[in-house]
Amino acid sequence: MSDEHRETGTGWPQPVEPVRPPGPAGEPDPRPDAPDADELSPLVPGEPGEPSRERPSESGDDDGATVNLAEVASAEVGSSAQPSDSPSAGPAGRKVSSAAVMIAALLALLGFTLVVQLKTTSTDPTLAATRQEDLVRIFSDLDSREKRLQQDIEGLEDSQRQLRSGEQGRQAALEEATKRADELGILAGTLPARGPGLAVRFEPGGKPIRADRVLDAVQELRGAGAEAMQISGGDRASARIIASTYFLDGAGDVLVVDGRPLTGPYTITVIGDPETMRTALNIPGGVAASVRGDGGNVSVEDREVAEVSALHAPLKLEHARPVS
Q: Considering all CA atoms of the chain, what is the largest pairwise distance in Å, rounded to the nearest integer?
């Protein structure tokens, strides 16, 4: 049987695949996982995944020594255990070392980046080490505290508004009380007053000016809206006319006003609406007509600013009390 065929035991010869040389003479196999040339010499390569078949020995003895897989594995282990400086492991060893160095450098760079990021993001080491449940509780406490502070702020603002409102109310009440006191002082004759009004002059004729004529004039002026009045005599003596003022006929041509004697002619200075008061004095059968009937004369003069400067002593009430 030729070298290209060998007996398979079935009666048919099995072709033997030729052994491919590792490469040109004197050059190693360029494949990185290629075994050593000495290890391939006793084996006949087969298909991938198949166990190596027996190869006839060089002496031509078929029952001679055969190489099994265990021997091949031991030979491979022995060859891989050679030092890295051997010619067969030179290029592969250098390539593996470069890849390992590159991977190690990348891992070191990644670790450094992670450390820097953690240091920059974790500003509070206490919170960084706190559990999630504790962080939730802390957040809830902060939220409750914020709500309480907001309620305190609203309460303080409400108190401020009340104080301002109370101050404004007190100021308004004080202004109203002052205004009311001024009005009552003018009506009571304890305060001087000025304003538009009239000057009514009574000149006697053949008969003296009687007290009832002056009282009628005062009543008509009050009915026409007079707010403040005073009466002056020819001797420039004056008396304030208020609600309690009374008039009496004295001896001779004397007129007694609240116990003070005045001589004619008499002048009543009154503050109010001039037109209305003038009409009230000149009504038919009124004061002016009565004085003229007695031989006297009544003259009325408008005043843009009539001054009532005479004051009345404050009244001392003995029986009347304000109702609370």
A: 194
Phi then psi for 44, rounded to 5 degrees? -110, 115
- The amino acid that residue 223 corresponds to is G
**Ramachandran area for residue 259 (φ above 0: left; ψ -120 to 50: alpha; else beta):** left
How many CA within 13 A on the CB side of residue 2? Answer: 7
193 pLDDT above the threshold of 60: yes
This prediction's pTM:
0.50
Q: Is the dihedral of CA 256, 261, 262, 263 positive or negative?
A: positive
Helices (H), 189-270: 211-223
Amino acid letter, residue 294? D
Backbone angles phi, psi at 162, to 5 degrees: -65, -40
- pLDDT tens by residue, 104-157: 888 888 888 877 766 665 555 566 667 777 778 888 888 888 999 999 899 888
Q: Is 8 helix (H, G, I), strand (E, B) or coil?
A: coil
**Torsion over CA of 303, 309, 310 and 313, rounded to 10 degrees?**
140
Mean pLDDT computed over every residue of the chain: 75
Report residue 191 as tokens. Answer: 């305060």
Report CA-CA distances (Å) from 246 to 131, 215, 219, 266: 98, 8, 12, 15
Please answer whether residues 269 and 307 qualify as being in contact, where contact means their C-beta atoms are separated by less than 8 angstroms.
Answer: yes
Edge-to-edge strand list for the sheet holding 254-257: 247-249, 254-257, 260-263
Q: Is the pLDDT of residue 71 over 60?
A: no
Q: What is the mean pLDDT of residues 156-161?
A: 85
> Best-predicted range by mean pLDDT among 109-118, 206-215, 270-279?
270-279
Asked if 274 and 302 count as a contact pair (C-beta separation under 8 A), the reply is yes
